[in-house]
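Our platform keeps sequence and structure together, in a single record for each protein. Such a record has a labelled line for the sequence and another for the backbone structure tokens. The tokens are whole numbers drawn from a learned vocabulary of local backbone shapes. The remainder of this section carries one protein's record, kept here as part of the documentation:
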Amino acid sequence: MTVRISLLLLLGTLLWIPSEAQVIDYARYVVNTLASDSLFGRGYVEDGDKKAAEFIEQEFRRFEVQPLNQSYTQSFEIPVNTFPDSITVKIDHQALTAGKDFHVLPGSPSISGTYEILFIPRDKIFDLNLLRSKIDQSDGKVIVLDDYPDSLMDNTQRNLWVQIQQLLTKHPSIKAAATILLTNEKLTWYGSQIEDANPSLRMLKDVFNPSAKTIELNIKNEFINAYPTQNVYGFIEGDIDSTILFMAHYDHFGMMGQAIFPGANDNASGVAMLLSLAQYYSENKPPYNMVFVAFGAEELGLIGAKHFADNPPFELSKTKFMLNFDISGTGDEGIRVVNGSVYRNQFDQMVALNEEHDLLPQVRIRGSACNSDHCIFDRMGIPGFYIYTLGGIPAYHDVYDRPETLPLTEFEDYFKLLRLFVDEL
């Protein structure tokens, strides 16, 4: 009889632990949903952020994760510059592709028309007298500034290069119709809380012909002073009055005209980890209280995390440890742990668990860094890690960060390591 009961208990325990296929299948489902075109990049066009928040709340409800203070959402407002309409760029009547050939700088205002091109080659950029003369001649024209690789500049030139770009794109005294900055680097987009003075684009050098005469630009922005968005959170009660805080931002850059930035790795994958842990602990009662937060507006400057910290729905001083997941979809080269050197005992514990169970290729240490939502809580003295995966696809802040190319290489082992680590805190 005793043996039979023990076997039943063992079988019951095994049922509570999701299989590898279940973990990966669920993660893939979350990433596919959040990074689908129907969510418009989880930004501030077509209510992409709200659709994403609704999905996360739906999952919390499905797992019977409880609301905090009788709500799953925490509302706040943000200023944001958006590009809701189709964008056209043609050089000598040759159409370019938004997101692949060029990015509109995120703070750009609207522009529409066909303009003469004023090209400034690389070898003339630091001839300030010539540059000033060219700028004076640019009234109603589009300045195209040649690429100047970082490797060719000393520190003085590097600082001057930044100042030149800032002058052309942001200073209201510039009379040029627009500025285009050529680059040999990967196109990387960001969000903006402000509207710049001058229309500006970044363009791949390979698609621009220096002898081109005209450029057609049709770009319409919509600056929104107070866009309503939200954080999404859930709660699982433990037996000990102390909290493990899990976090991941769900927002991304949305749309730039017809170009969608899906954000599969950044950060649908982090939300997949957050929800996978919420599902697991909803079926395996934890000793500590657990709060799961999907932050909005991280990409605009950690705004959702700051709002949460300023208006906490639970007593933050009771946080035992926090874990922030941002970019969780690769892992070919392991993970990096921000704050690992700050909380060395916990880091060493994670490394030991990884080695004991032969999970990730490596667990790399890093010091403090204010590069994701954890930063707001670091400043409050709340202990915790920000973890991201290493290796794999290079797609980041671009139109190529898509679910079909995200491998989720080490997602299952990463999930196992986190469970083991949390259970030993």
